Structure formats: C-alpha cells, structure tokens
Amino acid sequence: MRIFKIAFLNLVFYPLFIILTLVAFVNLGSLVLFLVLFLPKRKIFKLIRQAIRWYGAVIIRILPYPLIRLDYKNYGTNDPAGPYLFVCNHRAASDPFLMAVFPYEIVQVVNIWPFRLPALGIIAKIAGYLSVREIPYAEFAARTQKLISQGVSIAAFPEGTRSRNKSVGQFHSAIFRTALETHAAIVPVCITGNENVPPIGSGFLRPGIIKIHRLAAITYEQYKGFTPFKLKNYLRDIIAKEVKIMDRQ
Question: What CATH number is associated with residue 93?
Fold first, then answer.
C-alpha cells in the first residue's frame, strides 16, 4: 500500500510543481517589468517576497496534501516585534520552502546551489536572497544590516548543508556575527520529518508529517555579551535539544 502512496504522491506533485514554478516565474517576471514603471524599488521587493511566500505556501501546504502534512507550532507568541533572524536546522532540500509558514517579509541566506537552479535560482536573485559563500563578509553584513533596518527578516541555515542523519551539524558563524552587529532578535526554528522530502540521493518524496517548531525569540539583551562562537553554540544546543524531543514524539 505504501509503495502506491509514494508513486501517487510523486506522479501528482512533480508535474504540478513544475507547472506552478513556470507560471510563477513568468508572472513574477512580468510583474517586475510592469511595477518598475510605477513603484519605488523597496515596494517592488516587498511585493516580490510576498509573492514568493504565497508560492511557497502552495508548495508545502497544498500540492503534497494529504500525504505530506505540516504540523506547525509557535512558541513565540510573546516575542518582541520583528524583524527577526530565523536560525533553522537543515534536514532537507525542502527546508527553504518551509519558511513560507512565517507571515513576514523574509530574505533567505542560502548556499551557492539554489542560485544555479533553473527558474528558482533566478527568482531567488530577484528577491535579493544572500549567497553567503559568494560575497565577502563585509558586503554580507552590510546587506543584512540594510534589510533589518527596512523591517525585513532573515532566515538562515547555519549548518550550511543538510544533515545526513538526524543530528544537528556544527554551525557557521557568519549569521551570528551579523546578529551582534544588527541587535536583531534571534528566533530558533526546529524542523523534523522532512528528511525524506526527498531523501538524500533520491528524488522520490515520501509520505509523512513535517514538524516545524518556532521557539521563543532570544533578544539582543539576552545575548549581547556573547561572542559569535558562544552564540552559535548556544543556538545550536537549543535547536538540537528541541529536535531530539520532536523526533521522539
């Protein structure tokens, strides 16, 4: 029975994913060309990122449902107002799409490979996503500072690459150096269940439940005395402990 579910999921999801992506790519390009004649650059970027969030929401909530479902819990209901630095563990290639659960304007910090994807890479560039390995840290920090000052949140996966098991890998320091410079609140985000969406070395999606836990924000007043090294390990420990609990549930 499970093999039929897997076959059905992939036969339905991938054609719809390709069609939706092509439609989004064409329409987003047309929208940008039209809006550039009438709106300021900042407003255009905000609309583009909102469109990307809608696109991501369809990808994660509608196309694979009910064989793949989301279980999102928000433990940050008393957080200070954003923008935020979302720091997430990295289980699967689908992780960037999951940022659509957050109702904010978000720019993602990505590795090099997403920019090389057809259509999606171009969309990421148009949205101003940050390729942390392709730009010097000074430029990365300056662009992050500007985005935060504009009210734009940042989402980062500081492991740099997806985990090959259920452990949380070591974190890179760049986003934590930036946190200390921007004074933004840091929100730990824990993701489990999508390690098979798709599995490493395979393109086949598997049915399951993806869990996303947004933990309470850590304010600058709480971490301002930390070094980047201490801060990254502090966040890693918080996320690793929650991920273990989520995996057991």
Answer: 3.40.1130
Q: What is the pLDDT of residue 193?
A: 92
Question: Residues near 29 by Cβ (< 8 Å), separated by ≥ 6?
Answer: 126
User: Scanning the structure block, which residue is given the tokens 């402990």?
Assistant: 241
Which residues are CB-contacts of 75 (< 8 A; sequence separation ≥ 6)?
Answer: 213, 214, 215, 216
DSSP-assigned states of every residue in 20-39? HHHHHHHHHHHHHHHHTTTS
Name the more confident of 39 and 59: 59
Q: How many domains does the chain have?
A: 1
For the chain, give the mean pLDDT: 89
Find the domain containing 105 and state its range. 2-248
How far apart CA 193 and CA 209 sit, in angstroms, is: 6
What's the rounded mean pLDDT across residues 158-167?
84
Read off the pLDDT of residues 146-155 as tens digits, 9 standing for 90 and up. 999 999 999 9
End-to-end CA distance of the chain: 24
- 134 CB neighbour count, 10 Å cutoff: 12
- In terms of C-beta density within 10 A (0-12 exposed, 13-18 middle, 19 or more buried), how is residue 143 classed? middle
| pLDDT for the residue numbered 119 | 67
